[in-house]
Amino acid sequence: MKNINIKNSWKLPFVFLTMVVLIASLSSCSEEFVDEPTDTSGVTDNIIFANRNNAQTFVNGILANYKGQYGSVDAGGIYAMYFARAVKGNDIIQGVSWYRFDYGHENREPNFRRTNFSWSFNYENVNFANTLIAGVENSPTLSESDKKEFIAKGKFFRGLHMFELLLEFCPNYNNDRSVERIPLYTEPTTLETVGGNPPVPMSVIYNQVIQDLEDAIADLPTSRPGKSFINKAVAQAVLTRVLSVTQDDWGKVSSLARAAYGGNATAAVQSSNWGNGFSDMQDQEWLWALFQNGSDETNFFWGHAAPMMDHLTLSYSASYIDPDFVEKFSTTDVRNLFFDIYGVSATEPWRQYITTKYAFTFSSDIPLIRKSEMVLFDAEAQYHLGNTEQAQNLLFALQSARDPNAVKSLKTGQDLLDEILLERKKEFYGEFGPQWFDAKRYNLPIIRGTKHRVRLTVPADSNLFFLKIPEDEIDLNDNYAGFNNE
Fold this sequence. Notes:
It contains 18 helices and ten strands. By secondary structure, it is mainly alpha-helical. It has one domain (9-289, 365-480): Serine Threonine Protein Phosphatase 5, Tetratricopeptide repeat (Alpha Horseshoe). The longest helix has 26 residues, at 144-169. The two termini are 19 Å apart. Residues 1-42 have low confidence and may be disordered.
């Protein structure tokens, strides 16, 4: 395992942070050009938040981070964190290439790059969000309506990235909500910031995340320049994910999911991406994605799913599919895109199947949230609410859109929930790690079959479901003195 030493970049001086964001964002994150700021002679907060265009440029810079290229291919933007989760399950078999340590569940030590990247990337964006909120609140020139919108955007980013930190560095929330592992930041950190905030109970951070996202939903617009930007529906979708973890209010999970996917499940799940390279964010079923055009807006060969999973184009060709998972798909399912192109011998059964779900190009858009996920969350919520038939109908809306020969499930109880979770694996393999996400929130094990390159079982509620706190944080933050970093 190659170690890297990523310092706490989220504690860098404010001026440097804003300069990085402004420079990075001038040509990023847009399918339609956003006007450049009217004054770029300096990077003080008075200039950055002087008008709507400048504030939007700051937001664009945050979004530009999501396609970042940092220290290595498997430690880039948000796509890298999601794909690392994807290979931790039992559906994907990762070859001896990038993400192999995530696949082996051996990438959680405090000085490893997965741990350092996930911490620095998310806290950096939390600090950007806090800088945005404070700068907008203190702006003497922004209109009140603009202030509401940009504060909502800041709260969305803070809520999203604190949620990602909870997933990455904390155990299952509902086993013990009082666990203290990570700090919460609601104010910008600057050069003068001394030390760091103390770790606080998960319940405190989840409450802040939920409040931030609720505030964002209230004030975010429904319109946006393109799907690489955020709007009300994106915030509703992220809060749906959060509440699927806390499991406090399944009625609200359903209502948020329906608002995000539009309320008509049959219409929401229709997609032309399957079998066509899974790369077009203009597909109506994609809710939020990272735009790429192959030139000034692309991360080239960096580690999102397409260059890992495409074996027919010059790329890493590193990901294979577990034969046991392949058997879960009917022959008429449009997602059944598995092929044996290598004719491997019995000595390498893990290389038997590849998938053509992704066709890699430099202009392949990267999905972050799709409407089908929200439909399945709605089905899951209906199951928990005791509305079995509604859960079955919502599940069938997706299944029948993917397979013309699908038969509506008549399962009930735990069997129905298991089928919903299996459908999540089938629909989102390679995207954001649904099995890891679901196993963590439901206290389930991850059990791999005998054909995996790395055979293992991750027990339910294992420490392998979260990363250790980075060594740099423990060294620099006195609040971690005596901390049990297991």
